[in-house]
Amino acid sequence: MTDCTNKTRRTFLKIGGMAVAMIPVAAFAAKNDAMRTAMKYTDTAADPAKKCSTCMHFVPGKTPADRGGCKLFPGDTEVAPNGTCTAWAKKP
Q: How open is the CA angle 71-35-47, to the nearest 5 degrees?
């Protein structure tokens, strides 16, 4: 093989590898905008007692301050612990 072919192959493999590596990064930050709108979700709760972190549907992130998920918003991983929506229900 010639040097030109080897350089082209290396460039292709580098770019392809970077593209494959970015797939999980794009998949982790997801929002379910349709459900957020339907449930009138906001990132800040007007009533501190009814924030997402105190709701039975909230799925916490890695730390208490990190964004998490919601059982009612399938695929959504960007729910703020201080957010709220109309489906809030107190944890048992």
A: 75
**3-state class of 78 per DSSP?**
coil
User: In one letter, which amino acid is 17?
Assistant: G
Helix (H, G, I), strand (E, B) or coil at 84: strand
* Residue (of 61, 39, 66, 62) closest to 50 by Cα position: 39
Whether the model clears a pTM of 0.70, i.e. scores above it, the answer is no
HEC per residue, 2-66: CHHHHHHHHHHHHHHHHHHHHHHHHHHCCCCHHHHHHCCCECCCCCHHHCHHHECCEECCCCCCC
Q: How crowded is residue 42: how many other Cβ atoms within 10 Å of its Cβ?
A: 14
Task: State pLDDT tens for residues 28-46.
Answer: 558 888 899 999 999 999 9
